[in-house]
Description:
Blueprint: H1 7-24, H2 42-52, H3 64-77, E1 96-98, E2 103-105, H4 107-116, E3 123-125, H5 133-141, H6 143-151, H7 161-169, H8 173-186
Antiparallel strand pairs: 1-2, 1-3
Helix pairs in contact: 3-5, 4-8, 7-8
Bound molecules: zinc ion (ZN).
Amino acid sequence: MMMNGDDTGLDEALNSDISRLAQSRNDLEEEVTWLPFDEVPKHTQIVQRLLAGTDRMPAHKESGSKNDELVKELQNLMTLPGNDICADCPTTNPDWASVNLGIFICMKCSGIHRNLGTHISKVRSVEMDRWNDVQVERIKDIGNARSNQFWEQNVPLEWEKSSIQVNFKSSTASDRRRDFIIQKYHDRAFMSVHDDPDL
Ligand SMILES: [Zn+2]
């Protein structure tokens, strides 16, 4: 079931891929039985590598006008729907990023991402750090909306954005934010394993 065509087809294919990924995430040695790798969409391949711990990205940093171009490209990406809100909380106009996850995040969430370790999230400031092509390409390929289709596929009511928003304003906000991000990317707790339409 590959996806040419409209967004509905894309979403269905994506969701099905996510289910398959989620089902096998605890047993990555298991024989891979889903789509041949070269038929899997690029963003799904990326997440597949992230889950398997096999994702590798070049770390070199451009300078001068080349870096200026990349930052400008990032600033354009930041304005796209989804990217204009932190991938992990309701903060608007986030100007930090996780380069391997391919998302924009706010400064507060970036501190928590940093603590997850670089094997999970590699944090950069859009404007204060220097970038390379592959990192910008990654954010283009993923972005906040698509990323959350993977990582927030099955978020329990207590963690839904509306309640997170309330929680993030409370006195325990920093604990809630940290717990949410750890569950989301470290524990992978919100990736559904019950979404296979064949079940
Ligand atoms: Zn945030």
